[in-house]
Amino acid sequence: MRQGRAQSGSLEIGTATRVITPDLGHWLQGAGIVKRVTKVHDNLEANGIYFSNGENHILMISCDLVGLEPDYETHLREAMGVATGISPRDVIISATHTHGGPSLIRTNYIVPLDSAYMKKLKGWLIDLAKEAVHSAQPGEIGWATGKAQIGWNRRYTWADGSHTMHGDATRPDFTGLEGPDDPQQTTLFAKAKNGKLLAIMYNNTTHPVTFYGAGVYSSDFPGYARKKLRKKFGEKLPVLFLNGAQGDIEPRDGFHPRHVTRDEQVKRLGNVIYNGVMDQYHEVTSYNDNPEIKHVYKDLKVGVRLPTPQRLAKSRNVLARIDSGAHIRGLKMEMAFGAVHLQKEFGDAPFDILPIHAIRIGGLAILTEPCELYCQFGLNIKRRSPVKTTMVVGLTDGYHGYVPTIYGLLGGGYSGKAISWTRLKPYAGYRIVETASQLLNKLWSTFKNTDEKEIATSK
Questions:
Q1: What is the pTM of this model?
Q2: Domains of the chain by residue range
Q3: What is the pLDDT of residues 94-113, one digit of tens each?
Q4: CA 351 – CA 32 distance, rounded (Å)
């Protein structure tokens, strides 16, 4: 175990950053797209920040990746824990969910997981973790919250009762959006005692999909914002983007569509993030060098819904046709593979384990979960939080797929049918909210619970 240099209660902060861009020629992450990458638009990165008060330790890492398969993510955390001497459960790995990265989630029948890249990534993240932990120095933190809208709800409802993941709001049968959006941006600033900015960590909510299917690597508009922040504060500054409850959120306002190029969209939304961060930076007038650091978690067991026998048979037939040479791609391949893969992975044991973490850093709450949670659930978590400022962070501690509301299930469409990345029972999102509320309130001791030890150490 690493011996913390900080006196109990005083804060130490360590940071690190690594380029994690794969070589050209690797498979692109894309559910219905079969394509190899031919160009690097901009680098993918992993950025990390380590907090310690001598007794408690938290290492938070943001990766410009679509997500990580749960077993692989567990393997990463364990290796990083061994390398740094901190508990693997105190290593928090989040994905930005960029759609301009390598194949790391199995959502495509033809495209395999990029195992060669995964080996390289392990080495990069171990090095990053060691640097972040061993570079720790006395520091202080401050944060602020504002509005920087980069996402809008993408679930459209129609007069016949159906819902779709995208749509045209000018259609005469359009009846409204299925759910809300969340334009809140919360930013934490970490400084050394001499006033030097050590890292920026911000939380906002949307899908970085500008380069989806383009055959390029890109960190999307969060990467553009990071570049601008580095021009302002230093070229090696770690900047962490923690994505929110973005399952039904996209970076396009359907009521005010813009006809722009990919690069124009990246710059526009990147500037929205940058301006929001800068506003919040100037808003922070005091920093805390002695924040309370606490961390509790619970591994939440939830049921999995399986495809019907009839749908499974039809899906297997589609895959057999692909095997025979039929050129079936896009949504039809996605849905067929998703059903068959779901039955293969969960048919014998239809349940999943969702790691839910609650972190307290002074008066700031951070709640992480491993799914593409629909936005309403994220808002509910914030409303039930015992403190004013709460980050809700998805795609953390593995990837466990979409978690729609009941409306999303009733309306059908992409999230309505059971596939391996929309697999959880209808109550899953509500259970996540309940668990989040319990854990957050535990951190601020607003209620007593006889199973405190179980909540804090649940395996």
A1: 0.94
A2: 12-151+180-292+358-406, 306-346
A3: 999 999 999 999 999 999 99
A4: 26
